[in-house]
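Hey, I was hoping to borrow your eyes for a little while. There's a protein on my desk that I can't quite get my head around. The fold is given in discrete form, as structure tokens running alongside the sequence. I'd be grateful if you could look everything over and explain what you see. Here's the protein in full, and shout if anything looks odd to you:
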Amino acid sequence: MSMRFDLTDLRLFVHVAEAGSITHGAARANMTLASASERIRAMEDALNAPLLERNRRGVRVTSAGTVLLHHAWLVSQQLERMRGDLDNFGKGMKGHIRLLSNVGAMEFLPVPLAAFLSDHPNINIDLEHHGSGEILRAIAAGRGDIGIVGDAVDPGTELVTFPFAEIRLALVMPLRHPLSRHRKVTFHETLEHEFIGYAAGSPMQDLLNYHAFRAGRRLKLRIRLSGSDLMCQMVEKGIGLAILPETAARRSQQSMSIRVVPFTDTWTRRPLTICVRSFGALPTHAQRLVEFLKLNAEVAPAIPEKSRLAPLIRR
């Protein structure tokens, strides 16, 4: 069997597999649909096995395609490592890092990533948002360089992990709510009241439901939403309470008539973890980013007290 796959073939296949579509994968690879289809057919002919299962909704990788995808990622990572090692020899060469983050970590990334990119003009970062479980599977399979996950998922022994930051959950309520006079609250105290919940399938909502169940109660959800800003708007209108990362809640507090109160429960402090498949096997520029994130690992700064007390400006 003669397999003559070039780098363009491998990159195209990765794009198609990730997009679940030959059309979208071809666009990501800056290739025409006809050219992309021909390349994939040639790869399947060379292997004498189908790589993709076609259907009306797109494509899915077959067993053979899964094996090829794994090795294509390894080749891509090795190329990125080479680029990182050669970074000092040519400013025109770009390093590429694929960073996968869960929703909670997004609050902590803008400042360190901006500083890192400013210091490393020859490095590009693709930041993607996924659930923690999906991130762990992707990193273990070599489909990403660096992941940032919550503690709800055990990374397992095959991944190397480092502490990154800590999410602190807080209660968000209207200014004149009965609980608004408290400086801190327990989760149990809130269970008599109605809530603005997260969208179905949200890991955060699953966490809140679990702790309500442990308390022998059930959360009274008036509406489910995606996005902290929308949730705070509903709180401001008196629809219900919300439980959000304190940093996101404080940000909304600057422009809305809401009160933000921290919880005393220990489980409301949620650590975030950096995970990689193998630190030594990472491209040099990806290693630099891991080290930079570790050095800058901290709880995101709270909104200064002065701005918390500033007059509220309605939208």
About this structure: The two ends are 66 Å apart (CA to CA). Residues 63-85 form the longest helix (23 residues). The chain has a mean pLDDT of 84.
